């Protein structure tokens, strides 16, 4: 599915109020900002989610469905249509992340 190419500096938030931090490693740029790839780490801080009173915060984002045809540094780029799934320390899914603030000129599939 086509989408806009994601890059450093985008806004990521978990469904429970935490904020995501995307660490971009590729040198390729779009709009003067480094392009995000499927291998880049996204950590989450400040998540207040709990299960029956026990803390279970989102700690990272797992990206699914990156670009099929476009790569940067040999890795598939992330798109606005990619699925960003927040997970806890045990890797259990806790809901989709919200992504905003990305450029809207360069698209990929």
What's this model, at a glance?
The chain is mainly β. The chain has strands at 3-4, 11-13, 19-23, 29-30, 33-34, 41-45, 50-51, 54-55, 60-64, 71-72, 75-76, 83-87, 93-96, 98-100, 107-108.
Characterise the protein shown here.
With 109 residues, the protein is mostly beta strands. It has one domain (3-100). The protein is 0% helix and 42% strand. The protein is built from no helices and 15 strands.
Topology:
Elements: E1 3-4, E2 11-13, E3 19-23, E4 29-30, E5 33-34, E6 41-45, E7 50-51, E8 54-55, E9 60-64, E10 71-72, E11 75-76, E12 83-87, E13 93-96, E14 98-100, E15 107-108
Antiparallel strand pairs: 1-15, 2-3, 2-14, 3-6, 4-5, 7-8, 9-12, 10-11, 12-13
Mean pLDDT: 97
Which stretches are low in confidence, meaning pLDDT under 50 for 5 or more residues running?
none
Helix content: under 10%
Rg computed from alpha carbons, rounded to a whole number of angstroms: 14 Å
| Sheet with the most strands: spatial strand order | 6-3-2-14
> Order of SSEs, N→C?
EEEEEEEEEEEEEEE
The beta-strand count equals 15
Count of folded domains = 1
| Category by helix and strand content | mainly beta
In terms of DSSP E residues, the strand content is: 35-45%
Give a quick account of the main beta sheet: strands, pairing sense, barrel closure.
4 strands, antiparallel
Q: Note the overall shape.
A: elongated
- How many helical stretches? 0
Terminal-residue CA separation: 6 Å
């Amino acid at each position: 599915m086509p989408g806009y190419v994601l890059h450093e500096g985008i806004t990521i938030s978990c469904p429970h109020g935490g904020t995501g931090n995307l660490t971009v490693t590729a040198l390729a740029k779009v709009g003067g900002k480094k392009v995000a790839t499927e291998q880049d780490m996204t950590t989450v801080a400040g998540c207040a989610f709990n299960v029956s009173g026990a803390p279970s915060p989102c700690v990272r984002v797992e990206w699914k469905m990156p670009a099929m045809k476009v790569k940067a540094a040999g890795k598939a780029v992330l798109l606005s249509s990619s699925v960003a799934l927040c997970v806890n320390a045990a890797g259990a899914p806790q809901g989709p992340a919200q992504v905003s603030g990305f450029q809207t000129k360069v698209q990929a599939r």
